[in-house]
Every structure is written in structure tokens, then in C-alpha cells.
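Hallway conversation turned thread

IA: we were arguing at lunch whether anyone had actually written out tetrahydrofolate synthase end to end. Turns out nobody had. So, for the record, here is the sequence (432 residues) and right after it the C-alpha cells. Reply here if something looks off.
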Amino acid sequence: MKSYQEMNEFLGLVKGGRINPGLTGMERLLQKLGNPHDHLKIIHIAGTNGKGSTSAFIQSVLLQSVYSAGSFTSPFLNSVNEHIQFNGESISESDFLRVLNDMKSVMDDEDRTLTEFEAVTAAALYYFGAVAKPDFCIIEAGMGGRWDSTNVVSPILSVITNVGMDHCGFLGNTLQEIAAEKAGIIKSGVHAVAGYTSSEALAVIRQQAEAKQAPLFTWGDDYSAVRTKDISGGQTFTYRSLYSIEGQNYSVSMLGNHQIRNAALALMVLENLQQRFLLNISSKNKAEGLKLAFVPGRFEQMSDHPLVFIDGAHNPEGAAALKNTLKENFISKKIHVIFAVLADKEKEEMLSHLYSAASTLTFTDFEHPRAGSMKEMYEKSSFPFKRYKKDWKAAIAESVESASEDEVIIITGSLYFIAEVRRFLKDFSLYN
């Protein structure tokens, strides 16, 4: 392959493969590639929400501490190479093509049953193990954990951010069932850290950790954080843990109490690694790394005048976090929400959270094979201050042009939608 077009055609062919529970296909391909991931120091992260932000916090602190770091995250916003990063930069075109060509050279017809995500996961592990060779790798599960393509790794630490109702058709219809899938990343004897989550989910995670004799560190028992105040461009919090009993003050640029929890989880991960691997990470490194961490599309400010934010709140827990963030930061302003989501999401529960924060709600459409009928959702909605606008670009333009200084525009829903919106707003004349 000599171009991105050929690369995308190759991935598109793989995307057409069947989805079968199990890791046999991944293990077979990686074995052909020489199991390049076996010697990597991997932090494996699963969870319903917060994986990307937690990964970003960990990576940022490691880079401030002069450790090299690879990260594999999903989904991407613009191009597939965003899945794979080394030292905060997406894999280059030349390296990605090199990796895919090496993979293609060992693949046979049996490997063609792999999905696109499995192929990109394999590409990431091969790139990190055979090309970039970072000091640490942060590998984010795509969906679930037990049968996720990333669960071929042997991590030095397993992390579960939280458990919520998402991907129920694949993972189960109760928190306990979904928690069991997420906890499937816990390995025998390997330390694990759990983030802020429900008692029902935590009970399942504890059970799995005990069965695997894996030391488990949890929010509340072993670490915690309390928001202290808002600052220009962010918020501050006090962090305490079994390693930092006296408490440490930190700040983050990303808004929302959930981001403080994500930052605290990242700190607990880093402290655990410091104790076990004698890492040289100073308090200054942590403070600078946390402050610099940023995730595109997660309550990202796109404009000052008027205030415009985009947020990939693509499930009920994400919508709840968005609601809380809006109430914490913009209680005195009118909130205009523009919303589009995939058909297979828990839409009613998502909307119930948005109703309690929004002054107005615009339902709009976007192009995606799994996109929901937003007109149908609009017609069924009981929210009194609603409208339907088929053209999402027109919906945004109209909202921006009519917004006053006491109003905030929030564009939210599917991350696929947010990716399109972000590209549009970057080119939109008001944002230049």
C-alpha cells in the first residue's frame, strides 16, 4: 500500500468481516507478527465513560516526566490514525502504511474475518512493540472488556473508569452484567484500579478481582478528590490517597466534576506505578501534566462570542455529566442544546438529563448508517421548548447568529456527529 486511500480500502475490506466473540483471531495475527506487544508495559483501561480523558491525563503526566508514552484510544474524530499516538502525536502516514503493509504480508484468508477495529488494534500493538517502543502504553478497550480486541494484552495495571448502561445489546441489560464484561480485563495477580462508579458495579468488580487475586484500589477507600473552586480556564481540586494522605492540590483545564474524578483516577494509577516501578514523577510533573491534558470533542469550547461548546455525550452517563457541568458552570445563562444521536442508544434517558439543563432543544439529523430518526424523536418528545431542523449546519448557524451574551450553545450527542460538527466549526467564518 502506498496511500491513505489504499489503506482505507484495506481497512474497509477487513471491516466487512464477521464479528465473533473471542480473541482467537487477534492472537493468531499477533503471533504471526511475533507477538510484539508481549514486552510492552501496558496500562489497560476499560469503562463506559472517561476512558479517553483518563488516558489523556496519564499520558500527559508521563510526558511531563520525560517518559515516552504510546496510547490507543477510540473513536477518532478526523482520521483513523488518531487511534494510535506516540508522545501525544498521531501515527505518521509513513509509519501507519509501513505497519499495515507488514500486517498485510502475513495475513491470509482466515485473517480477513477480523473487524476494522481488530485490525487497527493489531496495528497499534505492532507499532508500539516493533517501531515506537515507548516506555509505557495506555491501551483503551473499545467496547466491554472480556471479549474486546485489546484484551490480548498482559498489562502491568488494569483500570476500570466506571460502568453505565451502554452497548446493552452486546454487553448485557443490567449494570451487573455490563460490569462483569468490563471486569474481564482484570488479570491474575495484576493490580487494578476502579474509578467512581455505582455500588452494584463495584461489587462485581471486587468479586472478579478477588477471584483473580488481583489487588484492587477503589474510589473512596484508597483515593478521592474534592472540587475546591473554579479558575480561569479550568477548576481546582484536592486529591488524597493512601499514598498522599495529607492531600495535594491540582488544577485541570477540562470542566465538569467528572473530569476531577478522571484526573484523580489517573493520579492513583500513576502513584501505583511509582510505588511498584520506582518512577521519577514529581508533584510538579503531575500538576503540569494534569493542567495540559485535553481531549477534543469532550466539552470543548469552540467560540467565546457566543459561547459554543461541543460534547460527545453519547450515552446516559455522558448526558448526566454534561447536565451537571452545565449546572455547575452556567446556571445563570440560557442553554440552547443541538442534539443528534445513533439509533441504538438509550435515547429517552439521555433526553431526560438534557431536559433538566436545556432552555431550548433542537433535534437535527446527520449522515450515518446507524443514525436515529431525529424527527421521530422530536415528535415523541414532551419537552415544551423544542424544534426540529433537518440540516444540522443550518441549525448551528441560526443558533450562533441569534445568540446573545447570556446564552450558551451546546452541540452534543453521537461522537460521529461531533466529529462532523467540529470540522464544520473549524472552517466556519465566525471561528476564524
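OS: looked through it. The chain has a mean pLDDT of 92.
IA: good, adding that to the notes. The radius of gyration is 21 Å.
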